[in-house]
Amino acid sequence: LNLMIDSERGIPKHSLPSDNRQWLLVSRPIGIPQPSDYELVRGPIPALEDGTALIRNLYLSIDPAQRGWAASGTNYSTPVMLGTPMRALAVGVVVESRTPLLPPGSCHYGWFEWQDYCVVAPDRVLSRADPERAPLSAYAGVLGINGWTAYLALLRLGAPKASETVLVSTAAGAVGSLVGQMARNLGARTIGLTSSREKMDLCTGRFGYQFAIDYRSTDFAAKLAQTCFDGVDVYFDNTGGTILDMALRHMRVGGRVVQCGTAAVDRWDPPPTGLRNEREVLTRRLTWRGFVIFDHLSELSEVMTNLQRWLDAGKLVYDEDISAGIEAAPAALTGIYSGVNRGKRLIWIGDGR
Ligand SMILES: NC(=O)c1ccc[n+]([C@@H]2O[C@H](COP(=O)([O-])OP(=O)(O)OC[C@H]3O[C@@H](n4cnc5c(N)ncnc54)[C@H](OP(=O)(O)O)[C@@H]3O)[C@@H](O)[C@H]2O)c1
Questions:
Q1: Separation CA 121–CA 53 (nearest Å)
Q2: Mean pLDDT calculated for residue range 288-309
Q3: Chain centroid to CA 24
Q4: Distance between CA atoms of 125 and 273, rounded to whole angstroms?
């Protein structure tokens, strides 16, 4: 995308449409969400109330977690109600305000849903986005939940020490690409799992991994055993399923498993069956902890300071995969589950409606 930037404030040029397009969730996805689970509707711009601001969305975030938010089953949050806008994070700019906390012209990242406009109270905002400090899109990725998750889940739960071995699934993705670089900067031996030669090269050439393995290759088990010959101290798991089952069998005694995502499991209802892993946990004395970024929002100022510092120093690189036009959102979500994304997936909706 070649966006015109308002040179004074760093905000990409955008119009203010006279109506609001919204993607509504119209059916509960069975397994992976499909475009047919959503309907694009057009309506009036929502009205302001005291204590709220009108946000014009610019970047809509596409996150694997949206599958869980749209499903009716087990999750850490209540399901999105049918007929309502799809729950989503986004970056936008305040165009009108009745709260001093969200002044006109300020940019924010928060729960603004898949739509052009959103009326929000300040508690729907996760962070302020400063377009003069970093590109606005970065606030929905490396400076958003992807960067926060990589930082906190790795440093707090995984806590790798220098020369320990860190294994990561979805290693070429928005979270995994950052985990690799952070672990490497801590002096760990890093191994990334991903789905193709192209992504393996990104892992080893760009994202801090010393080794990369294609989990779809027929000799995956042998390659995993060979590369993890000395055992794994930290497994940062974003997939669950058989990749996790196999990784557990290479954990060292006292190893830590960070359960950050379950991208490889299509559905949880009915619960999938597979290998039993409790004996691995017991005999290897593993610590297996779940992580949800929304439990850690009070820690963000330290996280943002460090992420920004590493970005400024060139110690952290990131890729973005940006499509244009709100129409692209549902298919972009479906595509993430077959790995077609190259980096953080976003939809730019500022111009070209
Ligand atoms: N717990 C939290 O608070 C939290 C917060 C943010 C993200 N996450 C989790 O972090 C993980 C990565 O999220 P992200 O936003 O950075 O997305 P991402 O990695 O940029 O994109 C998702 C990737 O998942 C992989 N994938 C999809 N289907 C798969 C399957 N069946 N088996 C194995 N891999 C599969 C694909 O990569 P390959 O090409 O490598 O297969 C795809 O590119 C997700 O599991 C997400 O839920 C958790």
A1: 7
A2: 96
A3: 21
A4: 39
Radius of gyration of the chain (CA): 20
User: For the segment 206-253, what is each residue's pLDDT rounded down to a tens digit?
Assistant: 999 999 999 999 999 999 999 999 999 999 999 999 999 999 999 999
Predicted local confidence at residue 353, as pLDDT: 42
Closest by CA to 106, choosing from 144, 133, 142, 146, is: 133
Identity of residue 43: G
Which two three-digit tokens encode residue 13? 């040029």
Residue 48 Cα to ligand 1 midpoint, Å, equals 36
DSSP labels for 282-326? HHTT-EEEE--GGG-GGGHHHHHHHHHHHHHTT-----EEEEESG
| Count of Cβ atoms closer than 10 Å to residue 310 Cβ | 19
**Residues flanking ligand 1, CB < 6 Å:** 63-65, 145-146, 149, 170, 172-176, 194-195, 199, 238-239, 260-261, 263-264, 291-293, 336-337, 339, 341
**Global pTM value:** 0.97
Closest CA to 63 of 185, 146, 161: 146
Are residues 32 and 262 in contact, defined by beta-carbon separation less than 8 angstroms? Answer: no
Peptide bond into 270 cis (omega under 30): yes
Task: Choose which residue among 170, 195, 215 to substitute to test ligand 1 binding: the one with the highest number of ligand atoms within 8 A of its C-beta.
Answer: 170
Task: Return the percent helix, strand and coil in the chain, to nearest 5.
Answer: 30, 25, 45
Q: Which residue has the tokens 């290998």?
A: 275
Q: What is the pLDDT of residues 58-110, one digit of tens each?
A: 999 999 999 999 988 767 889 999 999 999 999 999 999 999 999 999 999 99
Query: Which of 218, 254, 210 is closest to 233 using CA atoms?
Result: 254
Cβ neighbours of 327 (radius 10 Å): 16
